[in-house]
Amino acid sequence: MAASDSDPSAAAGGVTVGTSSPSSAPSSARLRESLAALSQGFDSGDTAASDAATNAVSDILDASAAAAAEAADIDDPARSDAAARAAEELLREVHAFLSSLTSSQQMAIDALSLVLPKPVAKLGALGGSCRAVAATIIKFFVANCSPRDMLSIFCEALDTPMELPNGLAYFVLLLNGLAEVLALIQRRHVQQVEVVLPAVLKVMHATVSECDEEHGKDAVDVFNAAVGIGNAIQEMCKAMVNRNKKDLCDILGLYSLQNIALVSRSKQQDILSACGPVVLQYARVIKFCGFTYLDLLTGNGVKVATDKLSKGEDADFADCFSFVMDGATLSVVWTFMYDDMTKYAGAELELALNEVQDNHTNKWEAITMLKYVLSSISYPWIIKSHSINLLLTLAQENHTEEMDHVDFTSCAPRTFATLKAIESVMMFAPEAVMRKKAFAALKKVISMVPSSQRFDILQALIKNSVSSSLTGILLDLVREEVVRESRRADEDCVASDGLQDHGESPHWASHALELVELILRPPEGGPPRLPDHNEQVLSALNLLRLIMIIDSRGSRLGRLLREETLQKVHSEWLIPLRPVVAGIQSENEKDDSEIANQIVCSLNPVQLVLYHCIELVEEKMKG
Hints:
Layout: H1 8-11, H2 25-44, H3 47-73, H4 77-100, H5 106-115, H6 117-124, H7 129-144, H8 147-158, H9 167-182, H10 189-210, H11 216-239, H12 243-264, H13 271-288, H14 293-298, H15 300-310, H16 324-337, H17 339-345, H18 348-357, H19 360-369, H20 371-374, H21 381-394, H22 400-403, H23 412-428, H24 432-448, H25 451-463, H26 468-495, H27 507-520, H28 534-551, H29 563-574, H30 577-589, H31 594-622
Helix pairs in contact: 2-3, 2-4, 3-4, 3-5, 3-6, 4-7, 6-7, 6-9, 7-9, 8-9, 8-10, 9-10, 9-11, 10-11, 10-12, 11-12, 11-13, 12-13, 12-16, 16-17, 16-21, 19-23, 21-24, 23-24, 25-26, 25-27, 26-27, 26-28, 27-28, 28-31, 29-31, 30-31
C-alpha cells in the first residue's frame, strides 16, 4: 500500500521533527537508530534484526510513557512538561518514518502495527500536540494495514487496566481507531462485531466504575467514542441485505441499550447536560434497529433479541448485555427528563403509553420493568425520581374492578420485586418530596393488584420488611384494605338482602389477624422490641382495634373473633405487652434526658391504643 501523505508537523501545531529538547535527544537518537535498523532488516531479509529493532522501537515509546506517568505521579510540572515534549518528539519521529515508507515496505508497516498502537496511544493520552500526532499514526495503520488484523490489535490494546487521569484519553484514541477499522470490514460482519463489542463494553464498564465527577468530561469523551463504534456498525447494517442484517441490527440495538444503562450510571455534576446528548445518539440508533417504544416499555422486543442471542453459536456473547433491560426502561425515562429526547420522540411515546394503559398485560409488564432501575444503587436519584414519574403515568386510568379479572399469578413475583424496589426509594431518597411520590406509587401499584391476591402481596412485603417504620406504613395499608373490604362486604350484603351472610369470617380476617400476631408475638419469641419497633407495634394495635370495632358492629361478622381467638389475643398478644410498655415508660420517665423524653413521647400512643384494645377484648369476652 502507499504510505500516508499526512504531515506530522501540521498535526501537532507546526513543531518540526529534529527540534529536540536536551532530555529527549538520547531517546530520539536511539529511536532513529532502531527505525533505521528495522528498515535495513526488512530490506535485507534479516528477520532476527528486524524483530529486534521492532521491539526496540516499542520499548523506547513505552519507556517514554512510563517516564511521563512517573512525572505525573510525583506532581512535578517541570518534569511533566519535559516528558510531554520528549513524547511528542518521539511520536513525530515515528510518523516521519512511517510516511517515508513505500508500498514495497509493507512488511515493516505491518510489523510496527503489531506493537505500536498501545504505546502510541499512551503517549497520545498526554494531551496537546501528542494526541494529534498519535491519532495521525493510528489513522496511518488503519489506512495501510489489514482491517481484520487491526481489529484484533486494537481489541488487545483495549484490554488494559484503566490508569487515571490519562487512561481515558488512551481509550478514546483506540476506540476512534477501532471505529475507522470497522468501517473497512467487508465480510463476516456479525462475527467481527462479536469480537469487538466485549472489548468496548469492558472499557465502558471500567469508565463508569472508576471515574468520579472530577473526570466527568473525559468520561463523556469515552462515551462519545463508544457511540462512534455504534455508528460504524450502523453503517455496516445499511450495507447488508441478507438475514444477517437483522441479527446485526439486534446486536447493535442491545449494544446501545447496554451503553444507555452504563452512561446513566456515570458520576457527573449534571448528568442531564453531560450525558443527554450521548443518550440521544443511542436513541436514534435504537430506532434504526427497529425497537419501538412499546418494545422498550414492556421489554418484550428486547427479551426476544437477547433470547435469540443466547441461543446462538457464542452464547457467552450474550453475557455482555447484562443491563439491556435497565437500558430499555432508561431510554424511556430519559425521554421524560431530557428535552431533546422528548422532542425527538414526538408523539410516538405518547401513543405507546396509551397502548400500554389500554392493555392490562402490557401495563403490568411495563410497571415491573421499572424494578431494574429502582432497585439498583448505581443510578442517580434524578433518574430514579423520573422513573417514579413514569410509573405513576403507567398506573393512571386504573379501574380496580377490571383488574380483578386479570390473571395475576404469572406477574406476582415481578410485582413483588418492583414493590420492594419502590420501598427502597421510600426509605433512602434524600428528598421528602421524592419519598412521598414513591409512597404514592407504592399505594397505586398495590391497589392495582386483584383484590383476591392483594393481602398476599401485603403480607409478603411485611414479612420481608427490615424497617419498623416501613412495616408500620404497610400495616396501615392493610388497615385501609380491611376498611375497603369490610365496606364492600356490607354493600354486597345489603344488595342481596342478607342472603350472602352465612356467619362465616370474611376472607381478609385471617390474613389481618395473622399480621397482627406477627408483630405482637414475633416468631423469634418474646415481646416486640420496644422502643425500636414502636411504629410497627402501634400500627399492628390500630389494625387489631379496627378489627374488633368491625366485629362489634353486628351479628353478620359475629364469627370473626371466636372465643378461642379472643382468649389468644388477650392472653398471648396484649397482656404480655402491657408490663413491657409500662416498664419502659417508667424507666425513661425517671431520666430527664432528651432521648428519654423522645422515647416516652413515642410510647404514649402505643400505651393508649394497647389499653383500648385490652378493654375491647375484655368487653367482648364478657359479652
